[in-house]
Specification:
heterodimer, A: 99 residues, alpha+beta, Mth169, Chain: A, 3 strands, 36% helix, B: 224 residues, alpha/beta, two-stranded antiparallel sheet
Chain lengths: 99, 224
Amino acid sequence: MFWGSWGMWDDRGMLFSVLVEVSLREGVADPQGATIERSLPHLGFDGVREVRVGKSIRFDLEAADEAAARAEVADLCQRFLTNPVIEDSVITVTEGASA
Amino acid sequence: MAARVGVVQFPGSNCELDALEAVRMLGGEAEILWHGDDTVNGVDAVIVPGGFAHGDYLRPGAIARFSPVMSAVMEFAESGGPVVGICNGFQVLTEAGMLPGALQKNRGLKFLCTTVELRVESTRSALTSEASLGDVLRVPINHFEGNFTCSPETLADLQANDQIVLRYVDNPNGSVDDIAGICNAGRNVVGLMPHPERAISPLLGSEDGVPLLRSLLLQAGASA
């Protein structure tokens, strides 16, 4: 799609930096979080609660505008970056490249 | 004519040869289905084997479900063909939406490599038709993410429709309702964490996997 790609570039135009934070859904057991929480008092850190372990995924995305970028990232999360059965995501979209 | 079983091979699969060998020992024909080919090559049954397909990157099964072969496997299953996902293969089938629920990290965060006891809870599936209800089978497990989880509504559906085919006698990984294996509503797609292909001879410590794989071969013969 050589010539098509120029058109795509024109259509998309803007660059966004995207952060997707993936975490286990409310109510899904988080054995990593529980293990970290249990070990903290042994290290002298008292009063830490509700430890949840997740992952963050960063990338740059070209899109026509912020609404289009958010819609695309939401679709990407639903179909690939998260497993909706057990995971939720929080999406942050910022104008401009990350680097 | 012997039933032909296709065993999917992803980059990172590591139980595909065991599955081939097991099928052949039980009198079936077996062949590898390369993940990059979008066909099941006319086989009568498909096994999605254990391992670490595509390195288990992102989540086990998350990338494997997009391999070209999986659209052919889905089509095969939709037309009633028997499909069994073992261990990583079970994870692939849940990610692909061919089976409900998901597999998460074991309670206790330990990689488990041991032999467990399974109780046959339903004989109405492509993998359990030749087993007897209530039978206890000794079959190895070998997984880190085998803790089956699903929404309360999905669990109620699985229970009501007799889709829980195998349960652990002594739950090793925290799976909800002691679930070791389930089938889809059509009963032709089955996923389980234990490895029946590693329990097919007294030399391997158990031959309790034989009735399970024999069920699959019979189903394959029926659909051939």
